[in-house]
Amino acid sequence: MRHAAAVLVLAFGSFASLSADDSDIVKGLQNLSSVHRIANVLELRRTLAHTLPLQVPPDPWGTPYRISESPAGYRIVSAGSDAKFDDTVALARQQFTGLEGDIVFEDGKLIRSNRNWLYTRVTADGPSASALKELDQAEIDFLMMRLPVMRALIGAKATVNTMQLAGTHVATNHTPPPVELTNDAWGTPLRITINEDGTYRIVSAAADRTFDEASWARPATPDFNEDFVYENGKLTRYVDQTAALHSADLTAIAAVSQPPDPSLAGKGRWVRIAPPVEAPVVVARVEPHYPEQYRRARVSGIVILEAALSEAGAIENVGVLKSLAPGMDMAALDAVRQWKFKPAVQDGKPVASLFNLTINFKLK
Q: How far apart are alpha carbons 55 and 52 in whole angstroms?
């Protein structure tokens, strides 16, 4: 399978040195991008043949990632800038500040992350802004990879590559191909027929791992469960990839939420809104931008924020209590930071306050 799996080799950005002001933030963002790309391959290894290679460079600070896999799931841990793994905090699901903490990604979920802290320190038009765009794309790529049709598409491409290499060997040597070219991407042995006149046929059972000989004479439907047929140097039966993607159920996408920010309750002078405290009133609202990539992926739902207001009604702090997806969370935060309020009131006087806001992203 080493030939067929070539498309799965991770492509990581360079960790070259940048200006001192921005380089640490860039490394933090690159680290999160790398974790998502590793998770992409681990998701594929769960779906396709487990022998798919996993070639992972160390994190931006030079420490190898801790990667564990089992039939029950997988886990990725980055030690952070201090190059020290802290097993005592690895199970606490939360956001943290700084670069020293462990990043933990487990079975498609971020358990520990510093993404929200990094986001607030990105320099517009600087290297960190480019690194943030790369992270946004890595997050979307992982989101899409969780769709069965996307995993099947990659498996199909890898399988066709194997069939072509096997066919070249058969045509050249008139012998069965080597063992590494005898299974498809799902681990099912290819059916290889070599005739006395040198012609040959290679068939993959495809994503459902079940051969359907009766179907070989008719065109394939746009379904990656359909058998693939490669004969005498030509792919004679294959799935229309575009049609298969268009017919896929995008509602099957499960957004990858982040861990929450630590609550601000009890950490400042802010009073939680409850009688007799009168709630603040929004006087100017900015609607959040719906990130286009998430709209196309048909991700919708709510983000719950915790906002801290001053006695003058100004936003002093805001965090995510319930995440929807990283890009959606950031869009909600960006919008609420621009809102204007009349302050909360207690005993006729304005007071600093703490309250929750729900931002609803609805598809139209």
A: 10
For the stretch 172-223, pLDDT in tens is: 999 999 999 999 999 999 999 999 999 999 999 999 999 999 999 999 999 9
pLDDT digits (tens, 9 = 90+) for 117-176: 999 999 988 899 999 999 999 999 999 888 888 889 999 999 999 999 999 999 999 999
Residue in the structure block whose two tokens are 């380089």:
23
179: its two tokens: 């063992």
User: Could you read off the pLDDT of 128-137 as tens digits, one per residue?
Assistant: 999 999 999 9
- Quickly tell me which residue has 């924020």 as its tokens: 305
Q: How many whole angstroms separate alpha carbon 49 and alpha carbon 155?
A: 9
Name residue 157's amino acid: K
Give the up-direction half-sphere exposure of residue 94: CA atoms within 13 A in the CB hemisphere. Answer: 10
Distances in Å between the alpha carbon of 293 and those of 45, 71, 144, 289, 290?
25, 32, 10, 12, 9
Q: Which of 252, 249, 254 is nearest to 324 (CA)?
A: 254
Whole-number Cα distances in Å, 5 to 34, 74, 181, 256, 260: 19, 20, 11, 26, 36
Q: What is d(CA 72, CA 107) in angstroms, rounded to the nearest whole number?
A: 9
Ramachandran angles phi, psi of 303, nearest 5°: -120, 130
- The three-class DSSP label of residue 247 is coil
d(CA 141, CA 187): 24
Chain centroid offset of residue 158 CA? 21
Backbone angles phi, psi at 189, to 5 degrees: -60, 135
Using the Cα atoms of residue 129, residue 326, residue 93 and residue 12 in order, give the sign of their dihedral: negative
Summarize pLDDT for 246-282 with one digit per residue, the tens.
Answer: 888 766 677 788 999 999 898 889 999 999 999 999 9
How far is it, in rounded angstroms, from Cα 66 to Cα 219?
45
**Residue 196 tokens, joined:** 């006395």
H runs (alpha helix) in the chain: 20-47, 115-119, 127-145, 148-173, 241-246, 292-296, 326-336
The whole-model pTM stands at 0.82
Sign of CA dihedral 28, 47, 147, 259: negative
Instruction: Locate 200 and state its tokens.
Output: 């040959």
CA angle in degrees (0–180, nearest 5) for 50-52-58: 115
